[in-house]
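Incident review: delayed structure delivery

Summary: a single-chain prediction request sat in the queue longer than the usual turnaround. Root cause was a stuck worker, restarted by the on-call engineer. No data loss occurred. The affected request and its eventual output are reproduced below so the record is complete for anyone auditing the incident later.

Affected input:
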Amino acid sequence: MTQLSDTILAPHPFGTEITQQQLIENFQQCKLWEDRYRQLIGLAKKLPPLADELKQQNIERSGCENRVWLGHQPLADGRLHFYGDSEGRIVKGLLAILLTAVEGKTPEQVVQIPLAELFQQLGLEQQLSGSRLNGVKSLINTLQEIASTYIH
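Output delivered after worker restart:
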């Protein structure tokens, strides 16, 4: 069982300083794919790199072109803190979007969030390659599986 702690592992600005509403507004202003691409790269730069000791094999996710780590931490108040990193800038930006949507939510809230719809809203789904889209879907499934393990 994971130790409950108030010390946040791998803090990041997503879901707190950067909200889902801000993301939607920023991406809706993008008319061209290049603009959305720049938004993704900007998000990737705001996601701090994970410390090497957090890049454990048990949180490395397969199914993506780039190496991706997606970890979580149950907080004392019942909410979940998610954190992650990727070697690829685009994937890291996509991960940042997911973190924005799920950060600080209860497990019950996380399983209810229509994460795939968020990518449609942001105008990203049609721009991503099939393998990237599969990687995103794999991360979405992982987030929801993690959350569901905390629902009794």
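Verification: The mean pLDDT is 92.
Action items: add queue-age alerting; document worker restart procedure.
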